[in-house]
Amino acid sequence: MCGIIGYIGYRPCVPVLIDGLKRLEYRGYDSAGVAYIQEGEINIIKSQGKISSLEEKIYTKDPLHATLGIGHTRWATHGIPVEKNAHPHMDNDGNVALIHNGIIENYQEIKEDLISEGYKFLSDTDTEVLVHLISKGYKETNHPLSAIRYCLERIQGSYAIGVLFLDRPNELWAARESSPLIVGVGVGENFIASDLPAFLPYTKDVIFLEDGEIARLDREGVDVFSKESGGVVEKEVKTIPWDITLAQKGGFKHFMLKEIMEQPRVIQEALSGRIDYKNRSLILPELDSLFLPEKIHIVACGTSFHAGFWGKYLLERLAKVPVEVDIASEFRYRSPIIGEKEMVVVISQSGETADTLAGLRMVKEMGAVVLGICNVVGSSVARESDKVLFTQAGPEISVASTKAMCSQMIVLLLMALYFGDKKGTISKKIKYEIFDNLGSLANVLEAELPSMREMAKSLAIEYSFARSFFYLGRGLNYPLALEGALKLKEISYIHAEGYASGEMKHGPIALIDPSFPSFVLATKDNLFQKVVSNVKEIQARKGPVICLTHAGLEINVDSRWDIPYMGDILTSFFILPAEQLFAYEMAVYLGKDVDQPRNLAKSVTVE
Ligand code: F6R
Predict the structure, then answer these.
(1) Residue of 26, 255, 349, 480 to mutate, ligand 1, most atoms within 8 A of C-beta
(2) DSSP state of 209
């Protein structure tokens, strides 16, 4: 939801900003802009559309040698995506430029006050009040820290901001509240960004800003201040072990495809250090320090919600612990009842999803213990949870989430095994079987993925006539049906609905006709025969059926796709990439923008 970057150092800043914005483009891509100080003035270049349009505009300009600048890629909230609403925004005197990610809730009343004082607004954004307030505070105090505090004291909402002052050409300022912002610490150069990949080619040393902190960067160092008191806050520099190759396409046409094909490695990483294969036991110190919950509440959004829903089936089956799963945007506005020995599990790839975070904060206030399942180290979910199980998937750049769900499912499976083991609800036989299969899962999947891709491609072409799809499954496959439908609709724009296959006859089956295919998950489990009956009901209405199943299982359908069987639980790790590849190949065949689907942005940091 908007990506921001700032640079101060010895390199020409514009290429650094553009390069960083391209790696942040997954956060928003409807307009973009940069501001830099050169020849005694703040220059701003903005463009509607993607970073490539901005680039074309920039490089028709004179050579750029500025070494201090800020950049922004936008996902519109207030004001349509046109050039005047793109960031950076400048004050009326041309002395302050600002970028912002977040939402200012009380901007309307501030705007009216500022207009009555003579300030001129050039955009329809909520952001513009920030730059005018800072400018006003600067005129009153002549000090950037005081000016920024003056502004932040008057606004409500969420923000990560980067600020330049024309008469302070050796300083870059930043602040955050409920929107992600990190500081990159280099040698003779420093950075701010919404996310690490933006400056990963230059440094892995990071300062995580907390809410209510303001940072001042110059070429040599970084000082952090409290918004509340104005006093200095001591911060630790942490090194993040992510490799730049993880944030590059590595020869693949799209990040989405790269991340799908990366899943064998993701499985290994998520398991890494967590299973003692020799003693067939689990190593999860994060859980050792918590209690055995009498009930679990899982809270998440989108694909992470589907992972949580899948986890519910497993936790109930293996650990016999009741689980409620909620979409975070619902959870935060109902009145959940969380008992003393109950635990809240919050799942988020980015760790910054606004609704998920709000749910987390709400239950923390209620006194609940929160376990985070999160990919991004230093993110808000990671910092605010009592304990965190990191999914260790590496950066996920594609807007459509793929490998993150795979890693979340591994972690949830380990959790179910851990609690089941501690409670004695899981037999040794089942536990050992799962351990043994987990040990070879990554290799089997690695060998399978190329032919799965070929199958997905030919099915995508065959079924590209369809304008609607059902995704159907039961038991563990029901959450996966929901995920398959989400993937297809978000990148190919084909309408798709995920249903529990047993529910079809209660209404949805009315839609079935020869132009409405169903993608059925009919894998080997205790519900297989029931799914076969559901398929027959569809076929009786002349509905075409694609079926994910295993060799040797008897089921007659239009298109059969056999995947390996490694026990009914681990079969999920083949269903997931099959659905992802089908959606991917469909979107590619239909000529859609796979990595940047319309209307979407990764990391939904607004409500
Ligand atoms: C779908 C997708 C979204 C996210 C959701 C939650 O492909 O990417 O549905 O899963 O916005 O995001 P996180 O996991 O970052 O909280």
Answers:
(1) 349
(2) P
- Residues in contact with ligand 1 by the CB-under-6-Å rule are 301-304, 348-350, 353, 356, 400-401, 486, 490, 603-604
* Residue 60 clears pLDDT 80, i.e. is over it: no
d(CA 153, CA 158): 13
CA–CA separation, 30 vs 48, rounded Å? Answer: 6
Q: 153, exposed or middle or buried, with CB in 10 Å at 0-12, 13-18, 19+?
A: exposed
pLDDT band at 63 (very low <50, low <70, confident <90, very high): low
- Strand intervals (E) in 67-107: 68-74, 89-90, 96-104
Q: List Cβ neighbours of 63 (8 Å cut-off, separation of 6 or more).
A: none
Q: What is the residue-averaged pLDDT of the chain?
A: 93
Structure confidence by residue, pLDDT tens digits, 472-503: 999 999 999 999 999 999 999 999 999 999 99
Residues 450-477 have a mean pLDDT of 97
- Strand, helix or coil for residue 43: strand
Is 393 within 8 Å of 270 (Cβ atoms)?
yes
Domain boundaries 3-240, CATH class = alpha beta
List active site positions: 2, 602
User: H helices within 248-353, ranges in order?
Assistant: 255-261, 263-271, 285-288, 302-318, 328-331
* 577 neighbors 441 (Cβ within 8 angstroms): no
User: H-helix or E-strand containing 589?
Assistant: helix 572-589
CA of 215 to the centre of ligand 1 (A): 29
Which CATH superfamily, name and number, covers 448-607?
A: Glucose-6-phosphate isomerase like protein; domain 1 (3.40.50.10490)
CATH 3.40.50.10490 segments of the chain? 246-426, 448-607
| Rounded CA separation 383/557 (Å) | 49
Q: Under DSSP, is residue 547 helix (H, G, I), strand (E, B) or coil?
A: strand
What is the Cα–Cα distance from 413 to 312, expressed in whole angstroms? 10
505: nearest Cα among 533, 544, 476: 533
Task: Using the predicted structure, report yes or no on whether residue 521 has a pLDDT greater than 90.
Answer: yes
Give the homologous superfamily in CATH for domain 246-426.
Glucose-6-phosphate isomerase like protein; domain 1 (3.40.50.10490)
Supply φ then ψ for residue 160, to 5 degrees.
Answer: -130, 125
Question: 371: which 2 tokens?
Answer: 């376990």
**pTM value surpassing 0.85:** no
Query: What is the Cα–Cα distance from 306 to 479, expressed in whole angstroms?
Result: 5
Cα 186 to Cα 9, 37, 190, 440, distances in angstroms? 9, 21, 5, 40
- In the block, residue with structure tokens 């790839």: 349
The two tokens of residue 540 are: 């009786």
pLDDT value at position 601?
Answer: 67
CA of 53 to the centre of ligand 1 (A): 27
Q: How confident is the model at residue 134 (pLDDT cuts 50, 70, 90)?
A: very high
Is the Cβ–Cβ distance between 166 and 94 less than 8 Å? yes
Distance 401 CA to ligand 1 centre (A): 6
Tens digits of per-residue pLDDT, 182-197?
Answer: 999 999 999 999 988 8
Q: Which helix (H) or strand (E) holds 462?
A: helix 428-462
For residue 420, what pLDDT band results from cuts at 50, 70 and 90? very high
Does pLDDT of 62 surpass 90?
no
Dihedral angle at the C-alpha atoms of 179, 185, 190, 192, nearest 10 degrees? Answer: -10
